[in-house]
Amino acid sequence: MRGSRRIPNIERAVWASCASPHNVSPMDAMHPDTWLISQGRPTELGDPLNWPPVMASNFRLPHDRYYNRTEGTETQNALEDLIGGLESGRALVFSSGMAAVACVFHGLPVGSILVIPEDPYHAVNGLAVEGEEQGRWTVRRLDLADTQGWIDAAREADLLWVETPANPLMTVADLPAICSAPRKPGCLVAVDGTFATPLLQRPLELGADVSMHSATKFIGGHSDLMAGSLAVRDDTLYDELWNRRVRNGGTIGGLEAFLAIRGARTLGLRMERAVSNAQVLAERLSEHSEVAVVRYPGLTSHPTHRSAASFMDGFGAMMSFDVTGSGERASAVVEHTSIINNATSLGGIESTWERRALIPGQESMPATLIRFSVGCEHVEDLWLDISNALESTERL
Ligand SMILES: *Cc1c(COP(=O)(O)O)cnc(C)c1O
Questions:
Q1: Shortest CA distance to 88 belongs to which of 228, 268, 271, 211?
Q2: How many of the other CB atoms lie within 10 Å of CB of 183?
Q3: Least packed by Cβ within 10 Å: which of 107, 158, 312, 381?
Q4: Which residue, judged by its Cα, is nearest atom 11 of ligand 1?
């Protein structure tokens, strides 16, 4: 049933990228920005240019589409074609990033060894801890910057879960080294690349088995939907994940898939602006007398700058910095703005920042740390907003 579904663009993307070095576009003849704009559209004469949000649980038979949770809809499949092509693989989309993560974790056989970063995304940590408490797997934690530790772990682990760049200290893992390490048979390397997007890093091309994104963030890009994706190259792994999604649910809604496609069309434009804004703001912040430290992989002072520069196509739009003074001062800074929103999520066209230690589960973060998701506003307006916030709170 599923085998008969036509997947128009995927094969070409996979084929084109097989031997490509990591800084070359996965789409042989096409830049990823063009791929995002031109693909995932209906192609018959008289068709609309965009798939409408197909709101359907059921389809008239006989047809190779039976039911939404199994075969998906045209809108869902178009989103999968878009993301799969970008990643040089085949994508599956989900109702959220965590539904995608759970789909990978829950494939681990009982007794597995799961390796995660010391401080992964908090819900990923929760999922790992819960499974360990239930006796499903053993969790090992490694510093993302400890490349040798990850390489050694690959000989014993069943899943290496690498989040890079990581939240919120912006550590970049040495993906080329970790993904090419000799592994115990069956060990999967999965990469949560939400902060990078598939435009700045393509783990499958480096040898990872799974590339995961919270499309809620940059891919959707407008803070108006929840979605997640997994991309893989291996057909058996694809079928396994597909089957688990059928059983566990986690299917994306038609409207969300439509909005995610609409957002993804401008991912290239948005990333270009946001990344360049982030570089300028990180440099200015690091010279500001009211800022103690700036963590952005694009700064040469960042501990993992060299690794990032070696395989990423840009340093992203996420950073964190510590203000001088107290945690209260940091709270005041994030509230004293007229443009930047005090909000926890990230990856929107609008800038958001937050005092990270106030988020449940993040209490161990430095009290003065502000996590900043740089948006697409004009950089001088952002800088004025930041300077005003720092200057109007100096005495706290
Ligand atoms: C947001 C996020 C997730 C979870 O995605 P949801 O869409 O919120 O379920 C996982 N990893 C990272 C790095 C994230 O930022």
A1: 211
A2: 20
A3: 381
A4: 121
